[in-house]
Amino acid sequence: MTPAAIIEQVKADGVRLALSAGGKIKASGDQGAVTRWLPIIREHKPGIVAVLQSAEEITIEPAAANARPIFWERGTGEIVGPAVPEFLAKVGMGETASYWVICQFLGQAVWVRSDRLRSRKAFEQQPEIRVVELLPAGFGKTAATGQGTTR
In Å, how far from its chain's centre is CA 137? Predict the structure, then answer.
């Protein structure tokens, strides 16, 4: 059985495997299942550690219903937007994790890394606004004032 197959079967049996900062395997979950799997985990430890180190955990959750439009910088240096965040994602674990905003832009799903986010002001101060997507009428209005946040 390969280390990846062991990890999948362990998960199916209700056991979660994770690496500690020191590179040790931590098993949690149903104690009976953990006890059954420990001898196999120990036997295949180097391979399991390698698979766990290379695996990227992805967590995706819905963005807030009233999320503000975002703008971001492309690799070319141009700032584009606005787009409404639909989901927030965390890729990886610990200090190496990266955070993303997932939105629709020009009819396509776009993943925007958090360090690429820019302000509306930066977008408007570009020498030339290159790409703009129109938002639905009334998007961004506050209930208290009825004033829009877009212009």
Answer: 29
HEC states along 7-56?
Answer: HHHHHHCCEEEEECCCCCEEEEECHHHHHHHHHHHHHCHHHHHHHHHHCC
Q: Name the CATH topology of 59-124.
A: SH3 type barrels. (2.30.30)
Any idea where the domains of the chain sit in the sequence? 3-54, 59-124
- Round to whole Å and give the CA distance between 7 and 25: 11
Phi/psi at 47 (nearest 5 deg)? Answer: -65, -40
81-131 residue pLDDT tens = 999 999 998 887 667 778 999 999 988 889 999 999 999 999 988 887 666
Contact 26, 19 (CB under 8 A): yes
Give this prediction's pTM: 0.54
Q: Is 5 exposed, middle or buried (0-12, 13-18, 19+ CB in 10 A)?
A: exposed
